Structure formats: C-alpha cells, structure tokens
Amino acid sequence: MNFCSHCGAPVSLKVPPGDNLPRHVCNQCGTIHYQNPKVVVGAIAEWGDKILMCRRAIEPRYGCWTLPAGFMENNETTGEAALRETLEEAGAKIALAEMFTFVDLPHISQIHIIYRARLLDPDFSPGEESLEASLITEDDIPWDEIAFRSIDYTLKCYFEDRRRGRFDLHATTLAIPIPGTYR
Fold first, then answer.
1. Model-level pTM greater than 0.85?
2. Strand duo 32-33 + 23-26: pairing
3. Shortest CA distance to 131 belongs to which of 145, 152, 117?
4. How far apart are CA 96 and CA 61, in angstroms?
5. What is the pLDDT of residue 176?
6. Which residues contact 163 (CB under 8 A, 6 or more apart)?
7. What is the Cα–Cα distance from 162 to 36, expressed in whole angstroms?
8. pLDDT band at residue 181, thresholds of 50, 70 and 90?
9. What are phi and psi of 154, to 5 degrees?
C-alpha cells in the first residue's frame, strides 16, 4: 500500500501507538490501514454417493479440480457465501448442512471454510470460473489434480467420515507448502 484510501496521502509502514504489529499509517490524516485474512467459503454438495466438483477455468491452478468455493463478500454470512459460490461456480442449488472443515493457511493469510450440503437438483452447469462441473464418486476423484491442499484435506476427511457413518467438524492448520508445489 502506498497511499491512504481515506485522504490519498502517502502511507508509512510502522507500529502505531498501542499496537504491536507494523501497519500502513497515513502520514497526513493518521488513518491506520489494517490488512486482515481473506475468508474462502464453499460446499461439499452430495448427490447419492457422488459429490459436486468443478474444474477451474481461472488461475491459480487452472484446469485442476476443486469444490465450489470462493472469497466471502462483505455483508454476507459464511453460509450465504457457500450458497452463492456453489451457484456461481457450478450453477447448482444446494441445501446447506453443518460446517465441515475449517482450515487456517497463515502463510497466505486465508482461512477456508467448507460446509456439507445436499444438492437439490442434478441439473447444473459450470459458471464462468469453471471449465466443467461434475458429480464424482470417491473412486473417480482425480487426486493428482486437486487444486488446493484445503480441498484435498476436506475430501479425505469427508470420505473417511462417510465410511465411519458419522460426520465431525475438522480443523487444521496447513503449513507453508514445499517450494514449487501446492502441497
């Protein structure tokens, strides 16, 4: 950040009085600009023994598979974000169930929240950010083409819980990946 979004004057990176972290502070009006983590929200939508997945039409990870998910917007709940993202990315309407995974990714300042959901209608089509949207069985999951570690984690937890016959809330922190990979 170079300029204040409040008055347009230059900002400096410094620790404001009463704080303990460097922040962008306006040199003219004193506005402190806090930068906070981004929230990604999505759903693992079930239809029988299959789940809804999308193949990405955008970077990062173009062409790889993921669950319908994306950045939460201002003035919406995490549940509303999951419903909206599923509709935007897969053209699918879902009934939301409980939160299923909560993943901290501190190295990219994000948290990922995935809900369990029930697909309401098998009539769906990929949105602008998806090359394809498909119902996929566990045996057909393209494990080597999963876009994000949080989705890989969610899928593994989901199928393990489904085998047990009981779904729990799963939370984890994913550390910095090996350079050159997403894992």
1. yes
2. antiparallel
3. 145
4. 26
5. 83
6. none
7. 35
8. low
9. -60, -45
